[in-house]
Specification:
- The protein is globular and about 65 Å long.
- It has a domain of about 50 residues.
- About 10% of the residues are buried.
- It contains 6 helices and 11 strands.
- The structure holds flavin-adenine dinucleotide (FAD).
């Protein structure tokens, strides 16, 4: 959504092809429905807390740092607030406000929206020539493939983009979850919340601040930043 609006703002004729009837279905459930939009720490701190792939993300974070992300969304009419751990949320605690701001931005910049599932990218003379959706080809010279990861496929991101990229000869590394639920056996019955002392039994490269708290519920554990797990 953001890429389409920025490309349109810069003068490109843009058509966004979305398989769902609702835009930003995953975005609307992020941060338990509140959308943890960014982290207001300096870029160097943010990068220090990314244990794998931080180098890859360096140019993106320097090009569009957290304070600019915050200013950008506030300009789009979404007031923000910063909570514990420098986490940034919309003041409304409603992730829909972020998705709607992006939708309005797309509308304002003239992005055309089409409902459909992209199946294949076509190539002519060594460049992109179109996208096949529902049996018809949409002609274009460039494509931004932004089909998401493969978590929560019910939100629409089920790996089509990886498949299309592979078909064009790109290599795709094996896909793995980065955030996973933890199951305890036997179930933890201690009073809540449980405070974890990072020095005991944590993986050697873990960066868990001494003040961090592990919240244990009957079927879940949350709140603890196990950044190298
Ligand atoms: C439960 C949950 C909570 C999260 N909470 C946070 C959080 O608080 N903060 C945070 O920063 N990140 C959070 N994330 C991660 C965040 O949601 C993703 O990083 C983000 O949505 C990725 O955006 P994207 O545009 O790349 O992909 P997506 O949001 O997945 O969007 C891809 C879009 O492409 C569409 N699409 C896919 N294939 C096709 C096709 N073939 N044809 C047409 N359309 C297609 C999909 O329908 C979808 O709308 C959370 C993720 C989950 C699952």
């Amino acid at each position: 959504m953001l890429a389409s609006a920025i490309a349109a703002e810069r003068g490109a004729g843009v058509l966004l092809l979305e398989r769902n009837s609702v835009l930003g279905k995953k975005l609307r459930i992020t941060g338990k429905g509140r959308c943890n939009l960014t982290n207001s720490s300096p870029v160097s701190d943010v990068l220090d807390n990314i244990t794998t792939g931080g180098r890859f993300l360096q140019s993106a974070f320097h090009g569009f740092p957290p304070y600019e992300t915050m200013a950008f969304f506030e300009q789009l009419g979404v007031p923000l607030k910063t909570e514990r751990g420098s986490r940034v949320f919309p003041q409304s605690d409603n992730a829909n406000d972020i998705a709607e701001a992006l939708r309005r931005y797309m509308e304002k910049t003239g992005v055309e929206l089409m409902r459909g599932r992209a199946r294949k990218l076509t190539v002519a003379n060594g460049g992109i020539s179109g996208v096949i959706s529902s049996g018809t080809e949409i002609n274009c010279k460039s494509v931004i493939l932004a089909t998401g990861g493969i978590s929560y496929p019910a939100t629409g991101s089920s790996g089509d983009g990886h498949k299309m990229a592979c078909e064009l000869g790109h290599s795709v590394t094996p896909l793995r979850p980065s955030l996973v639920p933890l199951a305890a056996e036997p179930l933890v019955t201690a009073p809540l919340p449980v405070t974890v002392r990072p020095s005991r039994g944590m993986p050697p490269r873990s960066r868990v601040a001494p003040s961090e708290t592990l919240m244990v519920a009957p079927l879940s554990a949350s709140g603890l930043k196990l950044s190298t797990a």
